[in-house]
Amino acid sequence: MTEDEWEKQSSFVPVNADPLSPYTEKVKTLAAHRLDFHIRENLRLGVGELTMIGGKYPDLFAVSPFSIWHNNYNEGYTNSMASFDFSWVPKKGFEVHGEFVLDDLVGTTENESKPTAYAFNVGVRRALSTGSLKGVLGVEYALATKFVYNTFLPYLKFNNRIVYLTNLPSSRTIVDYPVGFAFGPDAKLLNVSFDLFKENVSLETDFFYLVKGPNTLYTEYPTAEEGETKTIFGASLRGKIGHVSFSLLFSGSEFLAGLGIEFGF
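RE: above sequence
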């Protein structure tokens, strides 16, 4: 945690927090529980809940699988969100799927200190085959609003922090990965994919259109940034032929390429 983040974690007390706030134990835990309902052989509905616990070690009150965590109102050391998802196979080889995640919802009579925040994705996939060649064609749309995954306290943001160390030259890089949509809050993505498989050969292609607004996980919550909204067209190709793997990525003005060889002993 950076100095600024620690200052916020150790001094800020959210609205409706309990008298023991702020919580400053150096621990962050993600817990989740869910139920799947197989309504029909080709239709599944899922409902779940995630809670980020930070500044305090988890206890049964916070992670009991038999309770609705949102209703615990542990404002000072938890941040919960609900999820709803489905998958439907109307006919063989064709699937429709989607997910909706609700972080916060402000009603007409509620305090607006925590703005409405949600994310969702919906997509279709079609399996194809001819002889020994098989493929999957897919289209997916995803949207994340400005404040989803974010909150007042650093430990309660829905992110996973990874620290990368480099020896030559000596350096340390901190990367925060959102727990959910890869591009974080304030983003929209339309992606078309086509994958092919045949024996020891595989090819995966993606064509995408990304709209990324200025709000990020580092934005002071609940502030709406006034920066530039970026639009990016891109394409990627990943494949493996025998023991050789390769990748190509075109994203806006960037181009990346990779090549690898696998050996077994």
